Structure formats: C-alpha cells, structure tokens
Amino acid sequence: MESDGEHSPPHACGAGHRASHSLPTSAGGSVCVSCAAALLSSASAPSHHVSHVLASLSLALADPAFLAPLRAAHPRLLAVPLVEALAGAAARRDAALATQASDLAADLASAVGPPAASELVARLAHVLSSGSLVKHFHMLHCLGFLLNSIKGASAYIGDAVSLFLNLVNNLRLPSDEIRGEILFMLYKLSLLNATPWDNICDNDNVDLSAVGKSLLQLSLEVLLKTQNDAVRLNCIALLLALAKKEAFDILLLGDLSLIKSVEEEESTQTDDVPPNASIIVLFADAVKGSLLSTNLEVQTGTLDLIFHFLSSDANICVVLQTLVDENVADYVFEVLRLSGNNDPLVISSIQVLSLLATSEEMFKEKLAIGFSTLLPVLHYVTEIPFHPVQSQVLRLVWICIANCSGILSLSQEEQIACTLTLILRRNDSGELGMCSETFALVCSILIEIMRSPSAHDIQKLPSLIEEASKHAISSTLPHAYDSAFLVPHSLRLLKEALIFCLEGNTDKISVKKDLEDSVIEICGTYLLHWLETAVVDGNDDETLGEILQIFHIILSSTCHNKQLKFAEMLASSSWFSLSFGFMGLFPTDHVKSVVYLITSSIVDKILGCKYGETIRDAYVYLPSDPTELVYLLGQCSSEDFNLASCQCAILVILYACSFYNERLVADSQLLSSVEQYILLNGGKFPYEIAGSVMLTLLVHLYAFVRGISFGCTIQHSPEAERTLFHVMACKEWDLLFIRVHPIALKWLFQKVELLEPLSFQMLNFCRTFCEDRTVVLLNSSQLVDIKMVAELVFSGETSLSSLLVSLLNQIIKDGTEDEVFSVVNVIAEILVISPCSSSHFTSSGVIDAVGSIYCSPYSSRIKTVCSLLIFNILYSASAMTVYWEDEWLALTMKPLNFSMLLCASRSYRIVLD
C-alpha cells in the first residue's frame, strides 16, 4: 500500500504493474491488486506476508473508494489468488492463515458479486473434485459458505458429479470437523439439485446404486460414531434431502441383498464381515445416539429422517422388522417421555411410532412397554383442536388396547375413557372440532375399553360411556348428510354400550341401569327420528342396519318391562308402515331379514304367546310390499305349507297394526282379502300349522275389520261371514289366547249367531278369572281383564249380559259347582266395577238364575257370592227393577241370615262399603 497524498493520480507500482491496477483508498493511498494477487499466489511467500496482504485486502474491501473500481475493472482478479492462498495455507497446515483467506474469499464474493463468486466457486470446486481433502477443511468451509449464501451457486461448478463423488469418498476421513464440512457441502449440493440423482441422463457412467450405497453407509457411520451435534445436524440434513429425492429407494429396491433380515444376516456373517453390515441395521444403530442428544433440533431431525426412511418404497416389512428388533421404538418412546410436550418433538415421535405400528405383530410388545408414555401425550394432543398427530396418537392407543388390553390398569382405562369423553363433549358443544378419523378412533377405543375383561370393575366407566354415547350420537345422527362417515361409528359405540350394560353378574348389571336407560332413551329420540326421515331422505342401509341391530338387542336382551315399553314405543311410532318403507327403499335380503326380525320381536311383546315366531318362520317368503302382502293372504293355501306359513305371519302383522291405527292398505282391500282367504281356505289349515292359532288370528282380524267398517259403505260378503261362523262353531280357537282389540271384541258380542261359541269362550274366561282374578297375557302389554268385559256390558251395545245369564242357566243345569261359582263371581265383579250394569242383568233374567241356585244344594261360598250379587243389584238398580216387591222379598230373605254372619267374619268387597 502506498500513500502519495490525497489528490495524486494513480501511477504504476514499484513492481511495474499498470497504473490501473493500483486502486485508491479513502485514506489517500492505493493498493496494487496485481501485487496482492502475485503474493497470494506465491507458494514461497512467507506466511506473515500473506497474512498482511489478506488483512490489507480485508480492510480495503470495506472501503468504497477501493471497492468501486475493483468491481468495475477487476472483479475476477483476486478470486484465483485467494483459492491458491487457501491451498497454500492448507499445505502449510496454517489454520489461522487459512481462516483469513477463507473469510476474505467470502467477503470478496459478497462485496464484488457474481463475477468474483462464480470464479471462487468454480476454482474451489475444481480443487475439491479430486484427491484427499484431509488438509482442506477451510476450503470446504469456504465453498460451503458460498453455496449457502450465493443464489444459484451450483451453476458455477464445472463438474458437479466429480465433486460430489470425491466428497462422498472423503467421508472416510477420521476428522469430525472435515466430515461435518463435507456433509454440509453434500447437503447444499442436494438442495441445489447438483447430485448424480438430479441429472441421471447425463450420468450414464455413474452407478447410482453403488454411489447411494457408499454415501448412505458412510453417512450412517459418521452419524453412528460422532458425538458432535453440529456434525449430526449436517448428516441428518443430508440424509433427509437425499431421502426426499428417493435416492435410497433406488438403492434398496435395486440391491435386495441389503434388505435381509437380521437373523439371516447374522447366520451368514464371517470374521471378514464387520458387524452391522446391513445398511438397515447400521441405520438403526446410527440414529440411536442422535435420538438421545440433548439438542432438540438433532432429535427432531433424526425422527424426521426415520420417518422418511420408513416412508420409502423399499421393502418396508423388512425395514420395520429390523428397526423394531433393534429397539429403535424404545428410543423414540424415551424421546417422547422426555419431550415435555415439545410440539415438534411430539409430532415427529408420533409419526415414527405410527409407521412402526403398521407392523402390529412385531410392534405391539414395544407399544405395550411404552404405552404409559402415550397417556400424557394423549391428554396433550386432545386439548388442541385438529392437532396434526391427534388421530395418530389415538390409533396407537387403540392398537395397544385392542392387542394388549391386559397391560392396562383400571386407572389407566378410566383415564383414557375420561379423556375421550371430554373430547366428544367439547366436539358436541362446538368448543373443539375434530377430524373424521379422530372421531372414529375415539369411538373404537371406547368400544375396546368396554370389551376388556376388567371393564366391569371400572367404577366410573358406565357414567362416562353414558355421556360419551350421548355426545357421539347427538353430534352425528342429526347431521347425517354432513357426517355420513361418522354415523356408523357413533352407532357402534351405542350398540357396544348397550351390550356392556347387559353383561356381567346381576350386581354389575344393576350398577349400569342408568346407562341402559340412557341408551334406550337415545333410541327413542335420535334413532327413531332418523328412521322416520330415512324413508323420505333415502339414507344409507348401513346406518339402518346398525340401528335395527340396537333395537333387536333391546327387544331381546333387556328386562321384560323395558322390552315391552320399547316395543310399544316402536309400534306407536308407525313402525309397521316404516318397516315396509325401509324394505322398499333398500331392497336387499339383509334389510328385509333384519326388518322382519324386529317386527317379529315387537309382535312377541304386543300380542304375546310368541306370535312373532310365525314371522320368523316365514320371513324368507314374505314380500316387501304391503299390497303384495294382502294379495298373498287371499290365496288358497290348504295344500301349500309355505304359503300357509306366510298367511299366518300376514294375519299376525295385519292384526298387530290394528292396535296402533295403522293401515298398510285400504280397509275395503283388507276386508276383501280376509274374506277371500275365508272363502278359499275355510278352516282347512296344513297340519304343520296349529289350526287354533290360525283360526284365532283370523277371527280377531275379521272381527276388527268388520268392526271398523260398521256404519260405513264398505260391502261385506255374507257367505264369508257364514263360513267363518261355521268354522268358529266347529273348530278349536281361543278368545283369550291373544291380545284382544276392543273393536273386534265388541263386534263379536254383537253377533247373536255366535252365542254358542262365545259362551264357551266366556266360560273359559270365568274359570281363569276365578283362578287369578286377572287374565294376563304372557309377554303382552295388554291386560284382558274384567274391566274390558264390564265396559262391554255397560255399553249395552252387545249381548254380553244375556250371554252370561244364559251361560249361568246352562251350567246350573249341566255344569259343575266350580263353573257355577266362576260365572256368578264374574257377574258380581262386573257389578262392583259398573253398578249401573245391573239393569242389563236383571232384564236378562239374572234373578231367576240366582233364585234357582238357592233351590239347589250348592256350598256356602256360591250362596255368599249370590248374596253379594243380590245386594249390589238392589243398591244400584232402578225403581222399575224392584217393582215386583214380593219376588225380591222372597229372594233376599233366604241368603240374608248366613250372608250377614259371613260378612262379620270375613271382609268382602260390596258396593255398600
């Protein structure tokens, strides 16, 4: 550097270089760049001289007066000398000088721009493209810096492939520092698309598989051996970049010998083969140290590397097997345990564990050991709406519970159930959204918990499941269009909750009563409403099937009272019309069978006596259209058992509809079909079918249809009526064997032609009443009791009072004392219930009948009942009834004495009470 005053013009330096090479400085001096270049390029120049020049140039580059002419006239002049200075410093092993030269090169590229930068990159790359790099740490660092800081720097590299290959080869050097710089260089080249895999067409002579194998193996060896986190970061960054280019996919797919199982490889190893020769085993060993690093960036990068390695198109089963066998999962669980819910670490760890979990058989043991680590993570991710790995954490929990339920403690199962219930609650309220997969997994986990052997011992589980199932259903079923994927999952949760209620011993079932009631309530609100809209909206048959399965469980497995109540609710909600709507909307055998199964269960409860069995026996042949159903009824079946079975089932269905004011077809069409059945079949039923059952159904249905058409313009067939009445008189049937519709009963007792068969039926009623005082149909919701008979007598619209008096007269002559007692007892009870009915009995001649009893040698119990009967008639009868005073006086005096004595010793119910 020279100083000739502030305003002296440039002139040649003492070495004779051109004046234009002497660049001014703001201090008034000048710097001859040719002299500087010559000194930097001289291998024999003393180090302190070179250091002085480097320091001077560093100061000058910061001087605008020097920098401007350098950019304009000599942008490339110092680039090559600087590279040579770097090489000289490396040869001298002068780290300080090399650092100076490297720093100046970086400053020059930054200050001068592309001309200097391109020359520096090209020259440095050329030097580093061949030979050992053991002395070129600073040159590597310098080129790495330039590649990192200059846009498009890779374009200045003359032979990128040679550079890349030499860098890979020098990874064998033992120095951590050099390997770290090499790895960084390789990483930058990968990012800049300057690798052999980025220009395959121009690299015909390069064996990519061999390069990949060498690079992967050497990089992993570096990662395995180093304790330097900076080196680890560079290595991980490189491997990640190449993994994204699928460089290792080509390797693994192209050389299957590298993907042998650990057992096979160990069995073939010799002393000449080093341990961990398998790249996959080497990979597993290499990542362990990085996973245990205290540097979060290293840990996260390592996890991401494992994730991409497992996401390759290679033989994933073998990779999974090896990583699991090499205990990589244990290290990942340890990272997760110590993560402190650091979100990047949690995300990366769970992503890796999820991939390992795709091999359930191999991974489940590791998952069982590390499961306790997942619980706080589960709580963490469920607190955050749409957390990236929320569903993956849930899937891991589900895998563990499904495969290793025995390892969970009761408190852990309860904790999980509590967390998942909270998720569903917040989702239902709109506070916390969740993706479809998360919802499905939440339901699946709760189902697995309920299925676990210890579920019945978890005290809070029933209440948690009760709340969870409510929220699951209410958040999906009312919005079935928007939640089509979710509805089946919420229904399966509800079904399992119901099954859970019904399992276990009596004590455990009683504890779950509230849950059972809740499930049934949900069925009566959300599920039934969905069924009512399904016929209109055409929702999916899968949802229909799930709902019907739940209904069937309630109707078949809950206690009798709940079955009865639920059946009544369904039947009262137009079930029979809905059921044919389902079969029309979803014309599949599965839907048909399930619908008829539910219908048969309902019939069992509302009609009693297992009438539903007739539907279960014939559903295969039953049509799905009500019009076809009625048509089938009007066919001759005396020689066709299958048709007769169908007709029996049809009679049951049509009669069951009558109790809920449902009309599957018009009344006229129904009457016509029933009459046609009567005319074609009469009382001829196949021997396989109980004739009394068929006839009883036929009588009740015909009586109901005639009863509702009374006073209407619907025409009936007198011939069909006569035929049925004849069959009723000749064949066995039972008025009390089935639930009786009041309209049908009223119509029957209005028919004088049926006096004889109905007398027999009423005698049976009287016998049964005296045995139990209430006739209850087994498994039926309808009580056929004395009140129904009393109401018919009181109405005065039937001949029932005359029938009972006539029956009494007949059995006084021909019957037994027990039969007489039963009939008198029924008449007396009717008067207790309906005192105003006394006029109907007196007008029918009951006084004469009772009087004849006193003239016969009957026991005191009959005469006592007769006495009470007389007193009740006298108490409630009108004045005209007792007009014939002498007749009544003679009748009442006979029983008065012993009746009063009995009343004093025993208590009887009489109106005078």
From TrEMBL:
This is Protein PRD1. Residues 1-20 are annotated as: Disordered. SUPFAM superfamilies: ARM repeat. GO terms for biological process: meiotic DNA double-strand break formation. The lineage of its organism: Eukaryota, Viridiplantae, Streptophyta, Embryophyta, Tracheophyta. It comes from Aegilops tauschii subsp. strangulata (Goatgrass). It comes from the Eukaryota.
